[in-house]
Amino acid sequence: MHGAISTPHGPLTLPAYLPDATRGVIRSLDATDLDAVGVRAVMVNVFHLLNRPGVRLIAEQGGIHRFMNWTGPIAADSGGFQVFSLLDGAPKLGSVSNKGFTYRLDPSGKKHLLTPAKCIQAQLRLGADLLFCLDYCAGPDVSPQALRQGVRQTVEWSRACRETFDQILDEQRIPPERRPLLLGVVQGGEDPSLRRECAECLREIGFDGYGFGGWPVTDSGRLTESVGWVVDLTPSDKPRFALGIGKPENLVQAFRLGYDLFDCVMPTRDARHRRLYVFNQSVEQQRPGKGADFYRCIYMEDAKHVRDPEPVDPGCDCLCCRGYSRAYLHHLFRIKDGLAHRLASIHNLRFYQRLIAALATERTAQ
Ligand SMILES: [Zn+2]
User: Which of 57, 172, 246, 309 is deepest in the core (most CB within 10 A)?
Assistant: First the structure.
């Protein structure tokens, strides 16, 4: 999709990368840091916010925008993937039924129920601009029957989410131009007929955009075939969200397949693990190639940086690269100062924003 999508908190130009503010924060960064880096929208997770501090508390505080001091668009992930991951690792903590997910956060903890209706109610109470339907993400190695069941469940829950969404906004008499967007998530693993079935059912229900659900990357780090199928099976005039994608080279590949929106914890998590991304040649002048050879990672703990006076990336215009040397960042990591995480996260997020800006130019030139 070309251009921008309009949201209750302003237009969002495509393509866009949304950093994961899973618990309502991008660790060690505040809203002014994100704005300075060029971030235009962020992604929170309703599952984590339901558990802590609770959606009611956030609503009482004026909603998620006020709470985080973020004035731009906010997407809220449904939490389906997080509950799946929780139960996949510890099946005794809960179960799945037609109603939704029943789970406990720990064996002696309270029982929670995440239903499609509750999921939408929570996202609306947060005040999110982009909402996701609750989906059922089957694991990468499940039986064909389990994969089929995951698709059926996803379609039924998506229908229920659409109904709850329309009902609440109709009751509140919110005019169409002030409504948030509701996105459906296409499941079906690596089975082309299940992906088709899921996409066709979701299209019939009708959503404002469509997300890729499931496992986007193979063991060898390549994008799975299904990432491309989902683009072909969803309308080209609606935004397509590559959920959880990903590494810089995977983001470039998914963009060229037709995705417009991306979220991934990788740049900020890597920053905290001292892994910083550097373009091999200025991305503003050189189109990223197909592979991963347009950038490299530098590791701040390496002894060669002890006296390294260079910035992380001499071609980068971020706060970290404009003001500080690799030697200083190495020192900050060694003494475990919080500024190390902040500067490294700012740099890696700026890398992603520069990459997205380069891709936007590529699409405009088409
Ligand atoms: Zn930088």
Answer: 246
